[in-house]
Each structure stands twice: as structure tokens, then as C-alpha cells.
Amino acid sequence: MKSNSPRLGAALIVPIVLFTVVGLATNSWLKKPGPEHMRSSSKILFSEDPYLKRQEGKMYYHDLPFTGTISENYPKGSLKQRTLWQDGMREGIQESWYTDGSKKELRYYKKNRKHGLHKGWYRDGNQKFLLRFTNGNYHGLCQEWHANGQLYSQRHFEDGKEIGSHKTWTPDGKILANYVIKNGRQFGLVGSKLCNTTP
Fold first, then answer.
1. Which of 18, 30, 136, 148 has its CB surrounded by the most CB atoms within 10 Å?
2. Which residues contact 116 (CB under 8 A, 6 or more apart)?
């Protein structure tokens, strides 16, 4: 008479394997999200989220450095601002809008510092400013405009220090200041007065 023990053993193994697989899957599904989930770049939060906390210039979510997007709305619900964050610091684009949905500002950050070309507009779409930064400092040509479209100021910087030609105008286009920074000294016209000073 032949033994049926091999078939019996196989019959017992199959349910055990299925039970183990189902148990692992269930445990994984029920498991609370860990730090890796909190830091997901796909996470999008609103600024009023109670678990968001800003401390010493950095953003934390559940006490961990936040990576993802934070949006802020106006009281009536339209989008006010959207900022990208990485490891608790602003990194990449920050956009903002007026209440009617028109673009207000477009800024860039690198490790929480202003970087690259920053743009601003008035509500009617006229340019408000074009500012250039490197690691948080003004760098290069920076321009600002009056609300009527007339250029207000045109300045040059190098790592946060004023250099070269600087000009400002009144809303009706009259020159208000026109001077040059050379070797740390200021030469030219400032507020209708000829100057030669060290800033």
C-alpha cells in the first residue's frame, strides 16, 4: 500500500504560503507612512495644514524637513502662491497671482536663497520688475517700472554690491538720478544734486 503523505504535505503547504502572502500584503497596506512618504516630492499641501511648521527659515512637516509643493489660497479660494520645497528649503519655482488670476510674480530659489531671474507684473500685465540674483545677492542688471509702464530704475550689481551705471526716472520720464559706482565711489547726479561720495 502506497503512502499519501507527500500529497498531504503539499496540500498543507499551499494554504500556509497563501496565508503568509496575504498577511504581508495586509500588513503593508495598514502600515502608517514613514519618513520616506513624508519627504515625497509628489506631496502637495496647503499652507494652513496644521502639521506644517516653519522654523529658522526651513519648512517642516510632521517634524521632518518637507519636500514637495505648498499652495496658498486667497480667502475666496483662488490661488495666491505656490512654492516648491526640498529638504525643508525653497528650491526651484515660486509663483504668485493676483485675486483675478493674473500672474503677479515668478521667482526662483536655490537652497532657500533667491537665485536667477525674478519677474514681477502689475495687475494689468505691465512689467513691474526684472531682478537678477546669485545665491541671495543682487547680481547683474536689475530693473523696475512705474505702474504706467515708465522705467523707474536701472541698476547693476556684482554679488550684492552696486557697480557701474545707475539711473532712476519719475513716472513722467524725467531723470531723477544718474550716477556711476566706480571703485566704491559714487559719481554723478542723485536727486538733482551732483555727488561724489563713498556709499
1. 136
2. 108, 110, 132, 133
What's the Cα-to-Cα distance from 4 to each of 7, 9, 16, 17, 149, rounded to whole Å?
6, 9, 19, 21, 94
Cα(10)–Cα(8) distance, integer angstroms: 5
What's the whole-model pTM score? 0.74
**151 vs 31, 55, 102, 120, 135, CA distance in Å?**
59, 38, 21, 14, 26
For residues 104 and 96, is the Cβ–Cβ distance under 8 A?
yes
User: How confident is the model over 36-59, as pLDDT tens digits?
Assistant: 434 445 699 999 999 999 999 999
**pLDDT tens for each residue of 89-136:** 999 999 999 999 999 999 999 999 999 999 999 999 999 999 999 999
Q: Are 38 and 61 in contact (CB under 8 A)?
A: yes
Residues in the chain: 199
DSSP state of 8: H
Cα 108 to Cα 89: distance, rounded to the nearest angstrom:
12
